[in-house]
From TrEMBL:
Residues 273-330 form the Torsin-1A C-terminal domain. This is Torsin. One of its GO terms (cellular component) is endoplasmic reticulum lumen. GO terms for biological process: nuclear membrane organization; protein localization to nucleus.
Protein backbone atom coordinates (compact mmCIF):
# COMPACT_ATOMS: atom_id res chain seq x y z
CA UNK A 1 0.00 0.00 0.00
CA UNK A 2 2.75 2.46 0.95
CA UNK A 3 4.73 1.62 -2.23
CA UNK A 4 1.64 2.24 -4.37
CA UNK A 5 1.02 5.60 -2.73
CA UNK A 6 4.65 6.64 -3.27
CA UNK A 7 4.37 5.63 -6.94
CA UNK A 8 1.21 7.73 -7.33
CA UNK A 9 2.91 10.68 -5.62
CA UNK A 10 5.91 10.54 -7.98
CA UNK A 11 3.62 10.15 -10.99
CA UNK A 12 1.80 13.38 -10.11
CA UNK A 13 4.95 15.44 -10.11
CA UNK A 14 6.38 13.68 -13.15
CA UNK A 15 3.21 14.56 -15.04
CA UNK A 16 3.44 18.21 -14.05
CA UNK A 17 7.10 18.36 -15.00
CA UNK A 18 6.38 16.76 -18.37
CA UNK A 19 3.69 19.32 -19.15
CA UNK A 20 6.01 22.21 -18.40
CA UNK A 21 8.92 20.76 -20.37
CA UNK A 22 6.95 19.80 -23.46
CA UNK A 23 4.71 22.80 -23.89
CA UNK A 24 5.88 26.20 -22.75
CA UNK A 25 2.44 27.63 -23.61
CA UNK A 26 0.95 25.78 -20.69
CA UNK A 27 0.33 28.47 -18.15
CA UNK A 28 1.27 28.24 -14.50
CA UNK A 29 -2.42 28.37 -13.61
CA UNK A 30 -3.15 25.27 -15.69
CA UNK A 31 -0.21 23.41 -14.21
CA UNK A 32 -1.29 24.38 -10.71
CA UNK A 33 -4.82 23.30 -11.50
CA UNK A 34 -3.69 19.94 -12.77
CA UNK A 35 -1.42 19.53 -9.79
CA UNK A 36 -4.29 20.35 -7.43
CA UNK A 37 -6.59 17.84 -9.15
CA UNK A 38 -4.02 15.08 -9.09
CA UNK A 39 -3.10 16.01 -5.55
CA UNK A 40 -6.70 15.67 -4.43
CA UNK A 41 -6.89 12.30 -6.19
CA UNK A 42 -3.81 11.20 -4.29
CA UNK A 43 -5.22 12.54 -1.02
CA UNK A 44 -8.45 10.59 -1.47
CA UNK A 45 -6.52 7.47 -2.40
CA UNK A 46 -4.17 7.60 0.55
CA UNK A 47 -6.67 8.83 3.18
CA UNK A 48 -9.39 6.37 4.09
CA UNK A 49 -12.84 7.81 3.59
CA UNK A 50 -16.36 6.73 4.47
CA UNK A 51 -17.46 5.68 1.00
CA UNK A 52 -17.79 2.60 -1.17
CA UNK A 53 -14.16 2.73 -2.30
CA UNK A 54 -13.12 1.93 1.28
CA UNK A 55 -16.21 0.29 2.77
CA UNK A 56 -17.89 -2.54 0.87
CA UNK A 57 -19.18 -5.87 2.11
CA UNK A 58 -17.92 -9.06 0.49
CA UNK A 59 -20.39 -11.74 1.54
CA UNK A 60 -18.73 -14.45 -0.55
CA UNK A 61 -15.33 -13.80 1.04
CA UNK A 62 -16.79 -13.78 4.56
CA UNK A 63 -18.47 -17.12 3.93
CA UNK A 64 -15.21 -18.56 2.59
CA UNK A 65 -13.25 -17.22 5.56
CA UNK A 66 -15.67 -18.65 8.09
CA UNK A 67 -15.55 -22.01 6.36
CA UNK A 68 -11.77 -22.23 5.93
CA UNK A 69 -10.45 -20.33 8.96
CA UNK A 70 -12.93 -20.82 11.81
CA UNK A 71 -13.08 -24.36 13.19
CA UNK A 72 -15.58 -26.18 15.38
CA UNK A 73 -18.08 -23.32 15.41
CA UNK A 74 -20.99 -24.39 13.22
CA UNK A 75 -23.50 -22.34 15.24
CA UNK A 76 -21.43 -19.15 15.30
CA UNK A 77 -20.51 -19.40 11.60
CA UNK A 78 -24.13 -19.73 10.54
CA UNK A 79 -25.40 -16.89 12.73
CA UNK A 80 -22.59 -14.49 11.87
CA UNK A 81 -22.89 -15.00 8.13
CA UNK A 82 -26.68 -14.59 8.06
CA UNK A 83 -26.73 -11.67 10.49
CA UNK A 84 -23.98 -9.63 8.83
CA UNK A 85 -25.14 -10.47 5.32
CA UNK A 86 -28.73 -9.48 6.03
CA UNK A 87 -27.72 -6.28 7.79
CA UNK A 88 -25.25 -5.07 5.17
CA UNK A 89 -27.66 -5.77 2.31
CA UNK A 90 -30.41 -3.75 4.00
CA UNK A 91 -30.03 -0.18 2.81
CA UNK A 92 -32.46 1.06 5.44
CA UNK A 93 -31.96 -0.95 8.67
CA UNK A 94 -34.21 -0.04 11.58
CA UNK A 95 -31.42 -0.25 14.17
CA UNK A 96 -27.69 -1.01 14.41
CA UNK A 97 -26.54 -4.61 14.25
CA UNK A 98 -25.75 -5.79 17.79
CA UNK A 99 -23.95 -9.10 18.30
CA UNK A 100 -22.84 -10.57 21.63
CA UNK A 101 -20.23 -13.33 21.29
CA UNK A 102 -19.77 -15.70 24.23
CA UNK A 103 -17.42 -18.56 24.97
CA UNK A 104 -14.21 -19.64 26.61
CA UNK A 105 -10.74 -18.31 25.81
CA UNK A 106 -9.34 -19.15 22.38
CA UNK A 107 -12.58 -20.29 20.76
CA UNK A 108 -12.61 -17.58 18.07
CA UNK A 109 -14.55 -14.55 19.33
CA UNK A 110 -11.86 -11.97 18.54
CA UNK A 111 -10.98 -13.80 15.37
CA UNK A 112 -14.55 -13.61 14.07
CA UNK A 113 -14.64 -9.87 14.79
CA UNK A 114 -11.48 -9.55 12.70
CA UNK A 115 -13.02 -11.53 9.83
CA UNK A 116 -16.11 -9.31 9.84
CA UNK A 117 -13.97 -6.16 9.74
CA UNK A 118 -11.75 -7.51 6.97
CA UNK A 119 -14.76 -8.22 4.77
CA UNK A 120 -16.38 -4.83 5.25
CA UNK A 121 -13.49 -2.38 5.49
CA UNK A 122 -10.68 -2.22 2.96
CA UNK A 123 -8.24 -1.58 5.81
CA UNK A 124 -9.73 -4.30 8.01
CA UNK A 125 -8.95 -3.89 11.69
CA UNK A 126 -6.62 -1.01 10.80
CA UNK A 127 -9.56 1.01 9.50
CA UNK A 128 -10.14 4.27 11.30
CA UNK A 129 -13.82 3.35 11.31
CA UNK A 130 -13.24 0.22 13.44
CA UNK A 131 -12.99 0.98 17.16
CA UNK A 132 -11.91 -1.57 19.76
CA UNK A 133 -12.48 -1.08 23.49
CA UNK A 134 -10.88 -3.42 26.02
CA UNK A 135 -12.34 -3.16 29.51
CA UNK A 136 -9.11 -3.55 31.47
CA UNK A 137 -7.32 -1.05 29.23
CA UNK A 138 -9.90 1.63 28.48
CA UNK A 139 -12.09 1.36 31.59
CA UNK A 140 -9.65 0.13 34.27
CA UNK A 141 -11.03 1.97 37.32
CA UNK A 142 -14.59 1.03 38.38
CA UNK A 143 -14.83 4.14 40.54
CA UNK A 144 -14.55 6.32 37.43
CA UNK A 145 -17.33 4.68 35.47
CA UNK A 146 -19.38 7.90 35.35
CA UNK A 147 -16.52 9.63 33.56
CA UNK A 148 -16.14 6.63 31.26
CA UNK A 149 -19.85 6.75 30.43
CA UNK A 150 -19.63 10.36 29.27
CA UNK A 151 -16.46 9.74 27.28
CA UNK A 152 -17.90 6.62 25.66
CA UNK A 153 -21.08 8.41 24.59
CA UNK A 154 -19.10 11.27 23.06
CA UNK A 155 -16.71 8.89 21.32
CA UNK A 156 -19.49 6.87 19.71
CA UNK A 157 -21.48 9.93 18.71
CA UNK A 158 -18.43 11.62 17.23
CA UNK A 159 -17.32 8.60 15.22
CA UNK A 160 -20.76 7.72 13.87
CA UNK A 161 -21.19 11.39 12.91
CA UNK A 162 -17.99 10.98 10.94
CA UNK A 163 -19.01 7.66 9.37
CA UNK A 164 -22.38 5.95 9.71
CA UNK A 165 -20.76 2.60 8.85
CA UNK A 166 -18.65 2.55 11.99
CA UNK A 167 -17.93 -0.65 13.90
CA UNK A 168 -17.45 -0.81 17.69
CA UNK A 169 -15.96 -3.88 19.37
CA UNK A 170 -16.13 -4.21 23.17
CA UNK A 171 -13.76 -6.87 24.46
CA UNK A 172 -13.80 -8.34 27.98
CA UNK A 173 -17.44 -7.47 28.59
CA UNK A 174 -17.37 -9.80 31.59
CA UNK A 175 -14.90 -7.38 33.24
CA UNK A 176 -16.77 -4.16 32.44
CA UNK A 177 -18.61 -2.11 35.06
CA UNK A 178 -22.29 -3.20 34.95
CA UNK A 179 -23.61 0.35 34.53
CA UNK A 180 -21.24 1.38 31.76
CA UNK A 181 -22.66 -0.38 28.72
CA UNK A 182 -26.19 0.88 29.35
CA UNK A 183 -24.91 4.39 28.65
CA UNK A 184 -24.92 3.59 24.93
CA UNK A 185 -28.37 1.98 24.93
CA UNK A 186 -30.03 4.95 23.14
CA UNK A 187 -27.66 4.44 20.19
CA UNK A 188 -28.88 0.85 19.82
CA UNK A 189 -32.58 1.73 19.83
CA UNK A 190 -35.00 2.00 16.91
CA UNK A 191 -34.48 5.73 16.37
CA UNK A 192 -34.17 7.38 12.98
CA UNK A 193 -31.84 9.95 14.51
CA UNK A 194 -30.59 11.14 17.90
CA UNK A 195 -29.52 14.79 18.00
CA UNK A 196 -29.30 14.73 14.23
CA UNK A 197 -27.18 11.56 14.06
CA UNK A 198 -28.35 8.21 12.68
CA UNK A 199 -26.79 5.12 14.24
CA UNK A 200 -28.79 2.57 12.26
CA UNK A 201 -25.93 1.49 9.98
CA UNK A 202 -23.36 1.00 12.74
CA UNK A 203 -22.27 -2.38 14.09
CA UNK A 204 -21.71 -3.17 17.77
CA UNK A 205 -19.95 -6.39 18.79
CA UNK A 206 -19.58 -7.47 22.42
CA UNK A 207 -17.08 -10.17 23.39
CA UNK A 208 -17.34 -12.02 26.67
CA UNK A 209 -16.27 -15.18 28.49
CA UNK A 210 -19.58 -15.11 30.38
CA UNK A 211 -21.57 -18.26 29.78
CA UNK A 212 -18.47 -20.13 28.65
CA UNK A 213 -18.73 -22.72 31.42
CA UNK A 214 -22.36 -23.45 30.61
CA UNK A 215 -21.63 -23.70 26.88
CA UNK A 216 -18.81 -26.14 27.68
CA UNK A 217 -21.09 -28.15 29.96
CA UNK A 218 -23.66 -28.50 27.18
CA UNK A 219 -20.97 -29.59 24.70
CA UNK A 220 -19.58 -32.09 27.21
CA UNK A 221 -23.02 -33.55 27.86
CA UNK A 222 -23.51 -34.08 24.13
CA UNK A 223 -20.10 -35.80 23.97
CA UNK A 224 -20.93 -38.06 26.93
CA UNK A 225 -24.23 -38.99 25.31
CA UNK A 226 -22.39 -40.01 22.17
CA UNK A 227 -23.95 -37.21 20.14
CA UNK A 228 -22.03 -35.13 17.60
CA UNK A 229 -21.26 -31.51 18.50
CA UNK A 230 -22.83 -30.52 15.16
CA UNK A 231 -26.17 -31.60 16.65
CA UNK A 232 -25.99 -28.76 19.17
CA UNK A 233 -28.36 -26.01 18.07
CA UNK A 234 -28.72 -22.38 19.03
CA UNK A 235 -31.96 -23.18 20.86
CA UNK A 236 -29.96 -25.45 23.19
CA UNK A 237 -27.91 -22.48 24.37
CA UNK A 238 -29.48 -19.09 23.60
CA UNK A 239 -32.05 -18.78 26.40
CA UNK A 240 -29.61 -20.08 28.98
CA UNK A 241 -26.91 -17.72 27.71
CA UNK A 242 -29.19 -14.68 27.86
CA UNK A 243 -30.20 -15.41 31.46
CA UNK A 244 -26.63 -16.03 32.59
CA UNK A 245 -25.17 -12.79 31.24
CA UNK A 246 -28.20 -10.79 32.42
CA UNK A 247 -27.85 -12.10 35.97
CA UNK A 248 -24.06 -12.07 36.18
CA UNK A 249 -23.41 -9.28 38.69
CA UNK A 250 -19.72 -9.30 37.83
CA UNK A 251 -20.25 -8.68 34.11
CA UNK A 252 -21.05 -5.71 31.91
CA UNK A 253 -24.53 -6.98 31.02
CA UNK A 254 -25.78 -7.29 34.61
CA UNK A 255 -29.43 -6.20 34.57
CA UNK A 256 -28.65 -4.29 31.38
CA UNK A 257 -31.68 -2.61 29.87
CA UNK A 258 -30.38 -3.24 26.37
CA UNK A 259 -30.97 -6.95 27.06
CA UNK A 260 -34.28 -6.28 28.78
CA UNK A 261 -35.40 -4.31 25.72
CA UNK A 262 -34.14 -6.99 23.31
CA UNK A 263 -31.63 -4.70 21.62
CA UNK A 264 -29.02 -7.46 21.27
CA UNK A 265 -29.87 -9.13 17.96
CA UNK A 266 -27.98 -12.37 18.59
CA UNK A 267 -26.26 -14.02 21.53
CA UNK A 268 -23.70 -16.15 19.71
CA UNK A 269 -22.25 -19.18 21.55
CA UNK A 270 -18.71 -20.37 20.79
CA UNK A 271 -18.16 -24.03 21.60
CA UNK A 272 -14.98 -25.37 23.27
CA UNK A 273 -12.45 -26.73 20.78
CA UNK A 274 -11.39 -30.35 20.49
CA UNK A 275 -8.02 -31.82 19.46
CA UNK A 276 -8.98 -31.98 15.76
CA UNK A 277 -9.88 -28.30 15.75
CA UNK A 278 -6.55 -27.36 17.28
CA UNK A 279 -4.80 -29.30 14.51
CA UNK A 280 -6.83 -27.37 11.95
CA UNK A 281 -5.85 -24.09 13.59
CA UNK A 282 -2.17 -25.03 13.36
CA UNK A 283 -2.47 -25.97 9.68
CA UNK A 284 -4.34 -22.73 8.93
CA UNK A 285 -1.62 -20.70 10.64
CA UNK A 286 1.00 -22.41 8.46
CA UNK A 287 -0.96 -21.47 5.36
CA UNK A 288 -1.28 -17.90 6.61
CA UNK A 289 2.52 -17.82 6.88
CA UNK A 290 2.75 -19.09 3.29
CA UNK A 291 4.29 -22.32 4.46
CA UNK A 292 3.42 -25.82 3.34
CA UNK A 293 1.05 -27.33 5.93
CA UNK A 294 2.85 -30.05 7.91
CA UNK A 295 0.48 -32.49 9.63
CA UNK A 296 3.23 -33.91 11.85
CA UNK A 297 4.06 -30.46 13.23
CA UNK A 298 0.37 -29.60 13.65
CA UNK A 299 -0.12 -32.84 15.55
CA UNK A 300 2.83 -32.07 17.87
CA UNK A 301 1.50 -28.56 18.53
CA UNK A 302 -1.97 -29.89 19.34
CA UNK A 303 -0.61 -32.56 21.68
CA UNK A 304 1.40 -29.94 23.56
CA UNK A 305 -1.76 -28.18 24.75
CA UNK A 306 -3.68 -28.88 27.96
CA UNK A 307 -7.11 -30.52 27.70
CA UNK A 308 -10.03 -31.12 30.05
CA UNK A 309 -11.72 -32.91 31.75
CA UNK A 310 -8.50 -34.36 33.16
CA UNK A 311 -9.35 -37.99 32.43
CA UNK A 312 -11.18 -37.68 29.10
CA UNK A 313 -9.10 -34.74 27.73
CA UNK A 314 -11.85 -33.67 25.32
CA UNK A 315 -11.51 -29.89 25.08
CA UNK A 316 -8.51 -27.58 24.82
CA UNK A 317 -8.22 -25.33 27.90
CA UNK A 318 -7.06 -22.34 25.84
CA UNK A 319 -8.63 -23.27 22.53
CA UNK A 320 -6.34 -22.14 19.72
CA UNK A 321 -5.03 -19.10 21.57
CA UNK A 322 -1.42 -20.30 21.99
CA UNK A 323 -1.09 -21.87 18.56
CA UNK A 324 1.05 -19.06 17.14
CA UNK A 325 3.70 -19.24 19.85
CA UNK A 326 3.66 -23.05 19.90
CA UNK A 327 4.16 -23.10 16.15
CA UNK A 328 7.13 -20.76 16.47
CA UNK A 329 8.68 -23.30 18.84
CA UNK A 330 8.22 -26.29 16.55
CA UNK A 331 9.22 -24.62 13.27
Amino acid sequence: MKTTRLYLFLTIFSTIALLVDTDESVTAAVVIGIGATLGWTMYKYSHESCDSSWIYFNATALEADLESKLFGQHIASSIILKAVNGFMKNENPQKPLVLSLHGSTGTGKNFVSKLIAENIYKEGMDSRFVHVFTSTLHFPHPSQYLTYKSQLQQWIKGNVSNCERSMFIFDEMDKMHPDLIDSIRPYLEYYDKLDGVSYRKAIFIFLSNSGGENITRTALNFWKDGRKREEIELKDLETMLTLIVFNDNQGGFFRASLIDKNLVDFFVPFLPLEFSHVVQCALAEMRARRRKPDMDVADKVAKDLVYFPETERVFSVKGCKTIVSKLDYYT
